[in-house]
Amino acid sequence: MLDSASVNFNPILRILGKKLYHVPMRPTAVFAVAASILATAVLSGCSTDPKAALVGNYQGDPKSLKVGQSLGPMEKMVKDMVSKMSLKLSADGTFALTTGAQAIKGKWDLAEDTVNLAPDAGAGAPGMKLKVSSDKQILTLESDQGGVKASVGLKKTG
Questions:
Q1: Residue 20 has pLDDT above 60, yes or no
Q2: What topology is assigned to 52-156 in CATH?
């Protein structure tokens, strides 16, 4: 039964021929509902772990390759190697890096805007630092070996 307090404010409901009813609420009930919604929004925004946003799979991006000197005829081979690079950062703090022929496992951590990779003992690989982009979608590995600077990006794929 419809009464004069019914309200027709949703066009979709009007099309369906249904009406919404005004439900009177005491001011304290309105305040309690509003406070709980606000608290949920604030707490969900504050509880995000910066590492959680980085967990996932990354793939080497050949277009991001920058080298301080010409690679000449080796450029295609190096870009192919970069395209085969993959990195998995797991929530438990472990990583798996594949560079085509080599697979490296170890632990990872985040310090400000840098992901630190610490390979397991016996992996025969040095530790690595990757810069995190502001949108947390690209990790950039930079190196300076023998006076030649190079960098390559790994894009998040999932």
A1: no
A2: Lipocalin (2.40.128)
